[in-house]
Amino acid sequence: MSVRSFSLKNNGAFVAKLRVHATHANGKTDSKTTGSFAKGSMKILDLTEYSIFQEGDIVWLEAVVVAGKNRKASERFVYSRYGTDDAKYSVKGTTLSNSLKFEGLCIATLSAPSNNISYSYNYDNIQFEYLKTYPENKSFKECNGICHDRDYWYMTQYGCLWKFPIGTNFSSACKSNTSQKGRHFGDLDYYQGYLFIPKSYDNGSDICVYDANTLTEITYQEFNTIDGKKWDSMGWVAINPRDGKLYTASSGLNDSNPIRVFTIDMNAIRSKSKHFLNYYGTVKLRDENGKVLTRDWMQGGCFDNDNHLYLSNGCPTDWQGGTKYRNMANDEGGISVFRIENNIAKRICHSNQKSGFRFQYDGFRQEPEGLTYWDLDADSRSNSNVKGQLHAIMIDNEDAGSVGTDKLYLKHFRKVVTSNLKITKQPSNLTVTYGNGGTFSVTATSSKTPLRYQWYRCDKNGYNYSIKENSWYTGGSTSTFTVKKTSGEDMNGYVYCCVITDAAGKQVTSNKVTLTVLQPAGALTITTQPKDGSAKKGAFNCVTYTVAVQGGKAPYSYQWQFSRDGVSWGSFGYQEQNYFTVAHAETSGYYRCEIKDATGAKVTSNKAAFKVL
After folding, report:
1. Quick one: pLDDT at residue 175?
2. Is 422-518 a CATH 3.20.20.70 domain?
3. Residue 174: which pLDDT band, with cuts at 50, 70 and 90?
4. DSSP string of 179-240?
5. 100 and 16 in contact (C-beta within 8 Å)?
């Protein structure tokens, strides 16, 4: 028998806890215990909320009697996160003389988690100006979704996944995967090197995870049932880049069928587990006046960089062999922008058919599809026809009853925010002696106050890392930012900048400034940094990285490290050699070396790129 949850009714004269044990396929065991509950109370433990429980585990219940004798159930079940059964138990007696009874299986009546979902916002008074449509009237069968990373566009079709460089003219695909034809790929999103794609088919829906580099499927999680409700259509996912939470829903949105929010277990994805999403909570829609808002035919979703949620919906009135739907080319369809607070997404602006935020479609055979937020106004790599921040797909079903004859229209919009924000005093470079600290400062003015400041450390690849309060830094979110202390070679050459945002949402970025750390005589110092390298895929013993140091106290130990993104690093362990050879060219990324002398002093080299050709 399979179960999704366990429940325990406390009929005893004691305080109890509910504990569930699990034996995994590899023989290892885990358990989860609830909080205490008194006589007359009941606890439910929904196994789907905890990543320690894996599909197919053997699970059983233990009644924990506080300051007394515990009771373990003799029944064994198979865990299924897609099941609807709850194993119901009761316990009675005293602390030392008690008994446990299996009451049977029943349909689980599980409610959504009660986590509060709220975000802070720099501004809400936003609108969008229609710029142009590019490409326009291009044959591109069943184009459903769009997203991006820093360098590429990604698009989904009915059963295909495409990857285009940022400056493409959309006339050809760089890579594609057509192995999943026959399943509907919806509006996708990108997060930490992976593509999250909703996939719908006759018997349910999945969220599939693809490697954004290779466009190969890593894993998937089924959504055949959730809260006992069947998901027969899932058109979109949207991931908030600020907190990594994934938003999705089935085709229609209302208070009975709200947006579902999940946390993402990245380690589970890397291990190819089919349970990498954990149910976090729900979000319901409201219009500008706070009234219940319903949306049918959900098509796309995305977040901007200020926590606003964008949703698109609508369908053609004549579709699939003559089935008639109401015309949604009005307030019922198009693009809506929401702010989220206390599990409510309140609409703050909406597209129209006439001017300004104009997402025009005829409603008969045209329909909105996926959308993405990417600020391309200042990016010289982008195609000259593709500017603005919001990019939304509309398709024209030339034969409304036939799949595969669509024409693609990709519409581009610019976010309109009015303010006169400017920097009146730029920060200056700073030179300090090893171990000491110093301060950077910036001054700005705007008609839209208050101003918000965020300092960043900038690396040579153009990526910025926000400064947090810790033992090294203070004031990272103020106009004056202090480096408390320095660690010599590690921090020498660090580059910083400050992004200032006013109440209207306009942002300006300060000049970049450099921290120079002067080394004391005899300090451990790197004299030779590793250099970038490349090799053809599959090559053996192809590139050697080398470092050299002076000062400190010999002997030296060298620990080489690797990172896919230049942020998260894994180590190979300390060794005596000051060089490292890439054994097999499989994955692009970065290498660096941490050197330690006999006293324990450490320095870390610059990172050097490794590119697989």
Report:
1. 42
2. no
3. very low
4. TTTTSEE-B-EEETTEEEEEEEETTEEEEEEEETTT--EEEEEE-SEETTEE-----BEEE-
5. no
Of the ranges 110-119, 281-290, 473-482, 599-608, which one carries the lowest mean pLDDT score?
110-119
Q: What are phi and psi of 213, to 5 degrees?
A: -80, -45
564 with 589: CB under 8 angstroms?
A: yes
The answer to whether 246 and 239 are in contact (CB under 8 A) is yes
Which residues are within 8 A (CB) of 229 and not within 5 positions of it... i.e. 6 or more apart? 257
Listed in sequence order, the residues at least 6 apart from 112 whose beta carbon sits closer than 8 Å to its beta carbon are: 227, 260, 279, 281, 282
The CATH number of 525-612 is which of 3.90.25.10, 3.10.450.50, 3.40.50.720, 2.60.40.10? 2.60.40.10
The torsion of the CA quartet 204, 247, 348, 449, rounded to 10 degrees, works out to -170
Burial code (b: 16+ CB inside 10 Å, e: under 16) for 261-298 equals bbbbeeebbeeeeebbbbbbbbbbbebeeeeebebbbb
Contact in structure between 150 and 464 (CB atoms under 8 Å): no
Contact present, 609 and 459 (Cβ < 8 Å): no
Q: If DSSP codes are grouped into helix, strand and coil, which group holds residue 305? A: coil
Architecture of domain 127-416: 5 Propeller (2.115)
**Residue whose pair of structure tokens reads 């005596």 in the numeric block:** 576
Which range of 78-82, 117-121, 146-150, 220-224 scores highest in mean pLDDT? It is: 146-150
2-107 belongs to which CATH class? mainly beta
Neighbours of 54 (CB within 10 A): 18
Say how many C-beta atoms besides its own lie within 10 A of residue 153's C-beta: 24
Q: What is the pLDDT of residue 115?
A: 84
Q: Which residue has the higher pLDDT, 399 or 511?
A: 511
Tens digit of each residue's pLDDT (9 = 90 or more) over 45-88: 989 889 899 989 999 999 999 999 999 999 999 998 766 577 89
Q: Please determine, for residue 201, whether its predicted confidence score (pLDDT) is greater than 50.
A: yes
> Over 60: is that where the pLDDT of 370 sits?
yes
Q: Are 455 and 468 in contact (CB under 8 A)?
A: no
The residue extents of the domains of the chain are: 2-107, 127-416, 422-518, 525-612
The reported pLDDT for the residue numbered 523 is 79
